[in-house]
Amino acid sequence: MITNATDLPVLKPFRLFSPLPACGERSPRVARRVRGIFHWRRATESPPHPDPLPASGERESAPPLTTTHAWLLIAALVLAVGIGQAAAAPAAPSVLATLIKWTPLLAQGFALNIAMSFLAMGIGTALGFALGLALISLHRPVRGVAWFLTEFFRNAPWLVLLFYCMLLLPFELRIGDTIIPLPGWMKSTLGLSLAVMANVAELVRGAVNSIPFGQWEASEALAFTRMQTLRMVILPQCIKRMTPPWMNLYAILTVGTPLTSVVGVSEAMTLTGDILAAENRSELLVPMYLYLLLWFFLYCYPIARFTVSLERRFQVR
Amino acid sequence: MINFTPLWDWFRTLHESTGVNLTIFYDPFDRARFFHGFLTSLRLMALCLVASVVIGVVGAWIQRSRVALLRALTQGYVQFFRNTPPLVQLYFFYFALGSYLKLTSPTGLPVPAVSNFTWAAIGLSLYAGAFNIEIFRAGIEAVPRETIEAAEALGYSRLKAYVYIILPLAFRISLPALNNNLVNLVKTTTIAYAIAVPEMLYVANQIWSDELNVPEMMNVLLIIYVSLVGLLVLIMGRWERAMRVPGYSPS
Amino acid sequence: MAWTPDQPLIRISDVHLSFGPVQVLNGISLDVMKGDVICIIGPSGAGKSTLLRCVNALVPIDRGSILVEGQEVHDAKLDKLALRRKVGMVFQQYNLFPHRTALDNIMMAPIHVLKRPRGEVEQEARALMRKVRLEDKEASYPGELSGGQQQRVAIARSLAMQPDVMLFDEVTAALDPETVKEVLVTIRELAEEGMTCMIVTHEMGFAREIADEIYFTDRGIVVEHGPPAEFFTSSRDPRTRQFLSQIL
């Protein structure tokens, strides 16, 4: 009679191979034991088709923008600037000149956006990796806590997280005698990295689950320990699978950094508002915002194309 | 009518005994405005969910059009809205475009023709719609060619084939990604705060400015949002399972 | 009581195993002596692959005992490493590590698990590649190899642990007919060198050729067994005869 005492340690990887329920679903192929302590799987069966990676939703690449689009974009810009120019008071400097005048300041603000995105991505990925490993842990309480944290931070709207961090984190940390100031942008970055952490954890879990069961079996048969299996067989294969959705996450994070302007961080969005207030010319509204949108577009679109090419490359194995 | 007063009074005593100040429960004014904020959030979410799916379906159809200009326009729209910040998009709509759409009220003052709620709905629907177009496009492309050929051989017109054969299959294929996007949309509706739409976050901000109970309000907000989204995730998961075609896996 | 070669290398006694309501192994018993090549045949779902996995402690059993060189496999205090050194397994889906070259695949386990020095292991690995006739594919990745080549690398990988017995789980079932032969030739060479083998297979011709003993299992028990000559020509049990008539 199988009891916990006679359950072999060798079998532990196979216990966890009932993937954590995604969106409340239960894998129908894995028979659950009455006590719910471990999950059987037919050793001869191949595992149920693993969760597709939570990817950008693209299975094939989106058609790229073409020269038609470039012409349309130029046309739109010219139109916007032209209309603005037409509505401008004759004595005021041209819209284009104004845009150029404020570009250095905007660049500074944009640099802060990028810096925040890098930082948040770095911190979030590191934490998320650890959380992801906890999600596939063999110890139920660890898994449970990890699951809760992941779901919590995945389900929380980013703006609410930012508010939470801005308002409830102290403005400086006192550790012993040292005082570490926590400026607003740092607190916002921490808030964003929490969101990134949860998404990365989910990516890691999905990637590990998508590795064919046979890899675990073969490693077991060669007497690798679980840590060795993860380190040398499973995780190296996961890195490749995780990269496209991870880059996609970075793009989403980058277009999410303007949210920090709502909580008071002085980045590109805030500066745009300040510029518009300073100039106080209503004909600048459309060109200025379009200009800001263009900055983000020029940064994010190449990343998106690169991600698509990576996806394609990694699928043809 | 159920008498909730004892419940509200409990929160009042909670405040007096522990200092945990949840005025949204025991103060009728705060209660009312938070509830309205909640309803506004729900309305915004529901509106955007529906509109973005419609945009996705229609856009995916237009993307298969034979007219190159239409395809180019759709593609431009999709790439633009996917690679730019939704917040900036919203500001663009409300401040930039909104500045051109002004009516004169009876008092003679300029009044925006489109309310901020409407702009929020439009902006968010367009944003999520762009993603949906991509998702549906991928789903449609995943429908095997042979199936479409069979439909054509049976005499289905392009539109009929799209509606009766391709769309149902593509829908099921793209359901996981679609659910993911819809959940993200619900989370993104909070950015309407930035243009002063009186949804939950905005109202909570007003309340904690008045009552100075920031931690309590933040916690309540977090809990409500996480629960709402969690509920949506659950419902979507159920729906996904209900829509699953037994034994079907598109290669 | 130490094990000696006159006792069975593997002794499977009355093993029972069920997955939920399905009884997969229903009292299976069989003995494998050192140097024997035994083939297990039978209809699909008869638990043959499961049995192999029980011998290798990949799957626990409900009841019964499996002794490998006198050591009880389903003992809570089993030394996994010691068991896996003695028992090598080759899978139907090869399960090579796709992110490492063929040579790396073979070298990984002896280096990391057995902690043997790298130079030694590399020499042996190259010898093994020569043995399975793939010496020019050392730097290739599994994705660049054909199914038969991958399976031969998988065999070499298991051999690198220097096992006393090799388990083959329907290793040719996923291969094209042209490549089946090259794998069978490799297995035959191993058997001729004296390796103890437990082979689950559908290749009847191969089984007839190399087996010392053939076991026919159906619904989780051994229905009949015997040397190939007798087994294929004069089987006693009606189930066996029905199975053989369907496939031969």
Question: Can you offer a commentary on this structure?
Answer:
The complex is a heterotrimer of chains A (317), B (251) and C (248). Chain A has 317 residues and is mainly α. Chain A folds into 2 domains: 1-42, no CATH class; 65-315, Orthogonal Bundle (MetI-like fold), CATH 1.10.3720.10. Chain A is 64% helix and 3% strand. The model of chain A is unreliable at 1-60 (pLDDT under 50). With 251 residues, chain B is mainly α. Chain B is built from 10 helices and 2 strands, in the order αααααββααααα. Chain B has a two-stranded antiparallel sheet. Chain B starts with a helix and ends in an 8-residue tail after the last helix. The relative contact order of chain B is 0.13. The model of chain B has no long low-confidence stretch (mean pLDDT 87). With 248 residues, chain C is α/β, with parallel strands linked by helices. Chain C has a single domain (10-247), classed as 3-Layer(aba) Sandwich (Rossmann fold). In chain C, α3 packs parallel to α5 (147-159). In chain C, 46% of the residues are buried. Chains A and B meet through α2, α4, α5, α8 and α9 of A and α4, α5, α6, α8 and α10 of B.
Quick rundown:
The complex is a heterotrimer of chains A (317), B (251) and C (248). Chain A is an all-alpha fold. Chain A has 10 helices and 2 strands; from the N terminus they run αααααββααααα.
Protein chain pair with the most extensive contact, residues per chain: A-B, 57 and 66 residues
Q: Please give the alpha-carbon distance between the first and last residues of chain A.
A: 44 Å
Domain count of chain A: 2
In one word, what is the shape of chain A? Answer: flat
Mean pLDDT of chain B comes to: 87
Number of helices of chain B: 10
Element string of chain A (H = helix, E = strand): HHHHHEEHHHHH
Which key features would you list for this structure?
heterotrimer, A: 317 residues, MetI-like fold, two-stranded antiparallel sheet, 2 strands, 64% helix, 3% strand, flat, disordered N terminus, C: alpha/beta, Rossmann fold, 9 helices, globular
Compile the SSE list and pairings:
The complex is a heterotrimer of chains A (317), B (251) and C (248).
Chain A: H1 12-15, H2 67-87, H3 95-135, H4 140-155, H5 158-168, E1 172-175, E2 178-181, H6 184-210, H7 213-221, H8 226-256, H9 268-279, H10 285-315
Antiparallel strand pairs in A: 1-2
Helix pairs in contact in A: 2-10, 3-4, 3-6, 3-9, 3-10, 4-6, 5-6, 6-8, 7-8, 8-10, 9-10
Chain B: H1 5-18, H2 23-26, H3 28-63, H4 68-82, H5 86-100, E1 102-104, E2 110-112, H6 116-141, H7 145-153, H8 158-188, H9 200-211, H10 214-243
Antiparallel strand pairs in B: 1-2
Helix pairs in contact in B: 3-6, 3-8, 3-9, 4-6, 5-6, 6-8, 7-8, 8-10, 9-10
Chain C: E1 10-19, E2 22-32, E3 37-41, H1 48-55, E4 63-68, E5 71-72, H2 80-86, E6 87-90, H3 102-112, H4 118-131, H5 147-159, E7 165-169, H6 177-192, E8 196-200, H7 204-210, E9 213-218, E10 221-226, H8 228-233, H9 238-247
Parallel strand pairs in C: 3-8, 3-9, 6-7, 7-8
Antiparallel strand pairs in C: 1-2, 1-4, 4-5, 9-10
Helix pairs in contact in C: 3-4, 3-5, 4-5, 5-6
